[in-house]
C-alpha cells in the first residue's frame, strides 16, 4: 500500500487524490478551466470539450454531463445562490463573447452579450469575457480579461449599469483582469479582480472605485474562491495560494517553480506531472468539509482533490 502524499502547512495539510472523478467511456476533458461545488458537495467541472460541464457526486462518481454550446469557449465558471435562495451557474464564454446564466442542470435563464459601447469595442478592439460574479444585490460583474481589459456591471436582469477599469498599471487600471469575485468577509462587499497581467489582486468598491492592491505572494492569480475567512487562488505559475482574512499568506499548495518555465508549458510530457505538484492551476473550489478541488489548464484536463487533514 502506497504512503499518503500530504502537502500544505501545519494548519492546512491535505492528502493528495490525483485524477479525481471517474469519467465514463466516451467522455474526455478538454482544457479544464473552472470547477465549482454546490450545497450538496456535488462537483461541476467546466472544460472545453463537447461535454463542457461534467458533474460528479461528492465521492467522485459521474452523475451527468452537458453544455455542448460551450465547447471551445469554456472559461469563467461561477456558482451563486441568488436572492431567491436557489443556486445557479454563471459562465463566461470566450468564443461567443457571452455571459450565460443557467440552472444547475443547464437550462438557460439569461444571456448577456457585448456591451453597447462603440467607444470601447469595434472590429479591431474585441470583447472577450473571461469571468463573471454576482453581488449581494444581484448585480452581475463581467471581466473582459482577454479583450480591452474593462469590467462591466449589469443588474440582475442583464441591463447595463457601468464600465470601469481599462488597460494600465496605475490604481483603477488593469492588465488582463482574468478573474473576478465578490469579497464578503469585511464590513462591506468588495470586488476582487485578479489583475493577472500586473501580478496582483486589485480591490474595488461595487461602484468601481479603486480601494487597494494585494500584491504579495502572487505571480499570476487566475480567480478566487472564498471559504470562510479565507480565499483560495489558483496561480497559473504552478501553485494554489491560500490567504487569510487580511489577505496574508497562509500557504502555497503544490508549488512547482520549474513547471511554468518548461518548454511547451502548459502541455508538458505526461512523465513530468507529479500528483503533489501543480503545473497550471486555473480553477479552484472548496467543499463543505474543507477539501480543495483544483482544475488545471492542460489540453486533456487534470483534476486533483486535496482532502483536508483534521
Automatic annotation (TrEMBL):
<keyword id="KW-0677">Repeat</keyword>
<protein>
    <recommendedName>
        <fullName>6-bladed beta-propeller</fullName>
    </recommendedName>
</protein>
<keyword id="KW-0325">Glycoprotein</keyword>
<feature type="repeat" description="NHL">
    <location>
        <begin position="161"/>
        <end position="207"/>
    </location>
</feature>
<dbReference type="InterPro" id="IPR011042">
    <property type="entry name" value="6-blade_b-propeller_TolB-like"/>
</dbReference>
<dbReference type="Pfam" id="PF01436">
    <property type="entry name" value="NHL"/>
</dbReference>
<keyword id="KW-0732">Signal</keyword>
<dbReference type="InterPro" id="IPR001258">
    <property type="entry name" value="NHL_repeat"/>
</dbReference>
Amino acid at each position: 500500500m502506497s504512503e499518503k502524499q500530504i502537502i500544505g502547512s501545519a494548519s492546512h495539510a491535505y492528502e493528495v487524490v490525483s485524477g479525481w472523478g471517474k469519467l465514463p467511456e466516451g467522455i474526455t476533458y478538454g482544457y479544464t478551466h473552472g470547477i465549482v461545488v454546490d450545497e450538496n458537495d456535488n462537483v461541476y467541472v467546466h472544460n472545453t470539450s463537447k461535454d463542457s460541464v461534467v458533474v460528479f457526486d461528492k465521492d467522485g462518481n459521474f452523475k451527468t454531463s452537458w453544455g455542448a454550446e460551450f465547447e471551445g469557449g469554456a472559461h469563467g465558471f461561477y456558482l451563486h445562490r441568488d436572492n431567491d435562495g436557489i443556486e445557479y451557474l454563471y459562465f463566461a464564454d470566450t468564443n461567443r463573447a457571452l455571459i450565460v446564466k443557467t440552472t444547475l442542470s443547464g437550462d438557460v435563464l439569461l444571456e448577456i452579450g457585448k456591451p453597447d459601447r462603440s467607444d470601447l469595442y469595434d472590429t479591431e478592439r474585441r470583447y472577450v469575457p473571461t469571468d463573471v460574479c454576482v453581488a449581494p444585490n444581484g448585480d452581475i460583474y463581467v471581466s473582459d480579461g482577454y479583450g480591452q481589459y474593462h469590467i462591466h456591471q449589469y443588474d440582475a436582469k442583464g441591463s447595463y449599469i457601468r464600465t470601469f477599469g481599462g488597460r494600465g498599471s496605475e490604481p483603477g487600471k488593469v492588465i488582463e483582469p482574468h478573474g473576478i469575485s465578490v469579497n464578503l468577509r469585511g464590513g462591506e462587499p468588495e470586488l476582487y479582480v485578479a489583475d493577472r497581467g500586473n501580478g496582483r489582486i486589485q480591490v474595488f468598491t461595487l461602484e468601481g472605485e479603486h480601494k487597494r492592491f494585494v500584491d504579495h505572494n502572487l505571480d499570476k492569480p487566475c480567480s478566487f474562491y472564498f471559504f470562510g475567512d479565507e480565499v483560495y487562488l489558483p496561480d497559473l505559475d504552478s501553485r494554489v495560494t491560500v490567504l487569510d482574512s487580511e489577505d496574508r499568506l497562509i500557504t502555497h499548495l503544490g508549488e512547482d517553480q520549474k513547471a511554468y518555465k518548461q518548454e511547451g508549458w502548459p502541455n508538458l510530457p505526461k512523465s513530468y506531472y507529479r500528483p503533489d505538484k501543480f503545473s497550471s492551476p486555473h480553477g479552484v473550489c472548496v467543499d463543505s468539509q474543507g477539501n480543495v478541488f483544483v482544475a488545471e489548464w492542460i489540453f486533456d484536463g487534470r483534476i486533483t482533490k486535496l482532502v483536508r487533514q483534521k
